[in-house]
Design a protein that fits this description.
Distance between the termini: 86 Å
Number of domains: 4
Largest sheet: 5 strands, antiparallel
Protein name: histidine kinase
InterPro entries: BphY/WalK/GraS-like (IPR050351), HAMP_dom (IPR003660), HATPase_C_sf (IPR036890), HATPase_dom (IPR003594), His_kinase_dom (IPR005467), HisK_dim/P_dom (IPR003661), HisK_dim/P_sf (IPR036097), PAS (IPR000014)
Shape: elongated
Strand order of the largest sheet: 2-1-5-4-3
Membrane topology: Multi-pass membrane protein
CATH superfamily of the largest domain: Histidine kinase-like ATPase, C-terminal domain
CATH class of the largest domain: Alpha Beta
Number of strands: 12
Catalytic activity: ATP + protein L-histidine = ADP + protein N-phospho-L-histidine
Bound molecules: adenosine-5'-diphosphate, magnesium ion
Radius of gyration: 46 Å
Oligomer: single chain
Structural class: alpha+beta
Domain Histidine kinase: 239-456
Number of helices: 12
Low-confidence stretches: none
CATH architecture of the largest domain: 2-Layer Sandwich
Amino acid sequence: MRALFSKPLISYVIGILLVITTTGFVLSQVIENFFILIAVLLIEFIIFLLFLLHFYDKYMKPIKKATKTVDEIVKGNYRARFHHPVNDTIGQLSKRINALARNLSELSIQEQMQSEQLSTVIDNTESGLILIDSKGYIHLVNRKIIDMFGGTPKDYRGYLYYDVLENEVIHEAVQKAFLYEKNIKYAFTNYKNKDKFYLEIVGAPIFNERNMLKGAVLVIYDITEMKKLELMRKDFVANVSHELKTPITSIKGFAETLMETPLTDGGTHNEFLSIIYNESHRLQLLIEDLLILSKLEKEDFKLDLEEIDAEQLMEDISPLIKHQAQEKGIHLALNIQEVNTFEADKERVKQVIINLLDNAFNYTPKGGNVSLSIGSKEEQFYIQVKDTGIGIEQEALPRIFERFYRVDKARSRNTGGTGLGLAIVKHIVEVHHGDIKIESEQDTGTTITVFLPQDNPL
Ligand SMILES: Nc1ncnc2c1ncn2[C@@H]1O[C@H](COP(=O)(O)OP(=O)(O)O)[C@@H](O)[C@H]1O
Ligand SMILES: [Mg+2]
């Protein structure tokens, strides 16, 4: 009964009462008996009331429920549903509302997924991204920008770009992108914790559907690695030219003197010729080493892997190295420990051993000891060359694998060193996915151990 007096229904009840009063007034002209009149009006009232209750239950209540459900959906609660058991018009309406809610829910999940994917992509790109609107306010910065310039996203979002980004080059990129409405590219350097970074910025204007400037995207690339490689390459070219220049100048000088020296002076002739021979030999060694390095660095370089027998390898190289040791007056010990075979590129492994022994012989005074051990330890095959030579100072240790780095330039040259031996060793070990360990003490000796995976995963 309470439902009858709820707001919309009370007006219907008042309406019914008005109709009854009117019929009562009309009927009172015809029916004289007051009780019969009251009874008729009462029956009329009850019939109207029953109609009204039926009408309320069948239409008004479900529509109210439907309105509530739609309100929930409008608020964003896509899980709201409206159930109506009868398959009439309201039943159809309930089905449509539920379908709408389901669709919206799917759409919102999709949208959420897409926006999550987009923000994951933006956050994980290797380049820094900044989105600026046409007034210069920053709307978005990704993680890389935070890495490059520090702070948190909150320190950037909602601020004017020139208030939070200090670099003048960035300001210029934005201004030019806005002014010329085309992509602008600049390079600049940035310091973070005293480290120098080389960066490149591309400012790209963005337009709306009516081709009006909406803002700009700034993409900042970290080109430090590339710059370092470029510098290394430049250094390398300079070094190579320098290394080539010395023997060539000397060859040319001695040849010129030779031409001016009368043939009768046989002693000078022979002396100069042998100098020319030695210098050209040095040139040959240098060019050979350079060729080895460039071959190793080629992109399509492939190791020629094979099963190598340790004993056989030792036998192959021992005549050469024994001869070298004898010539230099050095005691050479060869050991093979717990290894039968291993997988590697045989010629390259020989090169590693020869380069390491070369150094051991060259930097160990006469009468010293050098040992070469081949063995295996924890699934790794190792080559160890140990000498009792001049050793290497601790500060120089990290640099000896660099191309052309020599602790003592004159000594290296005198022994026919090119400064590339260890760079080649390092390269060969790297392409085998191996490792190098070095221990050295000045005036005591040096031990270099090369580890290679026994079953190469390549
Ligand atoms: N066994 C060693 N004992 C002392 N110094 C060494 C030894 N091996 C390498 N070095 C130092 O490392 C430098 C680089 O070696 P390497 O690349 O083979 O060039 P190099 O042609 O000069 O031998 C050498 O010039 C030398 O100063
Ligand atoms: Mg060497």
